[in-house]
Amino acid sequence: MNCILAISHQKGGVGKTSTALNLSGGLVLQNKRVLLIDLDPQGNASSALGYSRSHQSISIAEVLLQRVPLHAAIYPYKDLPGLYLAPSSMLLVGLPQELPHLRDPNMVLLRAIQECEEDFDYIIIDTPPSLNLLTINALCSANEIIVPMQMEYFAMEGLTDLMETISLLQTSIHPSLQIGGIILNMVNSSTLCQEICAEIQHHFHDLVFQTSIPRTIKIPEAQSHALLLQLYAPHSEGSKAYNRLAEELISRYIPRNPKESPWRKANWGEA
Questions:
Q1: How do the pLDDT tens digits run along the chain, 271 residues long?
Q2: 8 A C-beta contact, residue 16 and residue 223
Q3: Which one of 13, 90, 114, 219 is most buried, counting C-beta atoms within 10 A?
């Protein structure tokens, strides 16, 4: 059984996109085949890999509108073989208003993923910071949620909101949904940062990844050059941290109910 992870937090600016990008890169460097789905209308993950929202290629929006299958919207990232992208587009902005007109609007992305999920070891979904049908589709498609946490108290409030959302989805749609791990992100040596780290670890214990991600200018620099951090600054502390995070994710992820998976097997050719 492969692994479908939603990178989610109901606050912006906590590093969801950086996590989605560079965790994907770290997994590929561990010889994993990875699909990154950019479900955020801002499209930052797509632009960081060389696809802008105005790009003329087929995007994940056309997939959600059920105009094309998912494999038609998957593109290889030329600088790192093994990494594939289903890019965002400007059409995603209006999709939360369009999806309610479709059958089972919460499950549109899941049905699309079913067509090709077995061709990837990991499917990483970058989500919007707001709670709408795009986010709900991502959470309903995922085995687990990975939560990046910026070291500030507003991010703690966003985590509380996310926990409430998970509880609602567990009750109504996706009973096995849970947090797979919390990443301490943008960590520095300040007293406030260390206090927040300690508080998160106290409350969430083993859910917190042992690997934390340092605050570094190399991460936005890499994105401005349309490169993963592992390619832009492979020897930087940030790159090494994301690679360790990928190794930790691989070592700790065990499907909890493999016989009860709602995802069927399917195959398709190269994108």
A1: 579 999 988 777 788 999 999 999 999 999 999 999 999 999 999 999 988 766 668 999 999 999 999 999 999 999 999 999 999 998 999 888 999 999 899 999 999 999 898 899 999 999 988 888 999 999 999 999 999 988 777 767 777 788 888 888 888 888 888 888 999 998 888 888 888 888 888 888 888 999 999 999 999 999 999 999 999 999 999 999 999 999 999 987 654 443 333 332 322 223 3
A2: no
A3: 219
Tokens of 165: 């959302």
Whether 124 and 24 have beta carbons less than 8 Å apart is answered as yes
Which amino acid appears at position 132 of this protein?
A: N
Domains of the chain by start residue, with CATH:
8-255 (3.40.50.300)
